[in-house]
Amino acid sequence: MLRSLAVLLVALSALAACGPLPQPFRGNPGAEGRRLAAPPAYRIAVPSPTAALLPDLASSDLAVAMSEALEAAEVPAVAGPPAPLDWRLDITADREGQGVVPGYAIRDADGRVLGQARGAPVGLADWSQSEPALLREVAARDAPVVAGLLSRGEAARRASETVAFNGAGGPPRLRFTGVRGAPGDGNQALATRMRDFLATKGLVVQDGAEGAAFAVSGEVTMAPAPDRKQRVEILWKVSRRDGHDLGRALQLNEVPTGSLNGLWGDVAYVVAEEASVAVRDIIANAGGLGEAATRRGEAPAAAGGEAPPLESAGTGAAPAIPAAAPAPPRARPPARARTVAP
Question: Biased composition, Low complexity: where in the chain (predicted)?
Fold first, then answer.
């Protein structure tokens, strides 16, 4: 039998004041305070370019230099591959005569091109040497061009935006990018169950990034364990549209080796039921459901009869395993999620 699932919820913690403190900016936060009152609407990821006529190390240096230059221009940016809701800056370079012209394209999280621009030419010899100082100079020079593309793309996004971070514009939309790494039919089974349970938690689940304020992804890791068992780790990551990592829920198991190589069946049901609660709590703790939505009770699970009834946590009762499943271990309901400090 499976050990009881231990779910560790890593979320943001609020700081409580011990007594009255001076509040010089109360009621008058200033322009910067008003700008920071709401989270940035996006974050731009700058992956290492593959078509910039640079060696790998220099490509990585250019991505870092551009992300730092954008940060200096007060544009949220990070060097590396994009998170599920990040926008992406693709950097290219074309040879023109004795020079090289950098090119920039902004894509939204769904891969749509929002804008393109070209930088100023760089001497071919200088570009070929790809000195870090030159790459920083190019990034600092062209960052305003990229920032202009972002501003226009953001203006277009705001014109059609209907979902607020705090849920004031209706139920928050969540981009679910699925599950990876599971053996057997685990990726599909976990994703299907997770979508069903998240939909009962006051969240609108969707595949694309358009209009989504949050994103969730799942990753399964299998590792050998003693006594002919496997250690199963299921990690659920929750992020916000601006790229901020809101929290993670980790589920741990040890199962007989190979027992999850076929159909996951009720195991997927049990895992997703508890994980969906943890995901909802992470979003609620970040203010993503809005005050009214947080006070409302959760909707009942969707009817359909496919999922077996579950006993309350801690009873030790196990749901029946469907006959079609190739003898996966019987699963007990998981322990309730615990909130711990990040």
Answer: 299-324
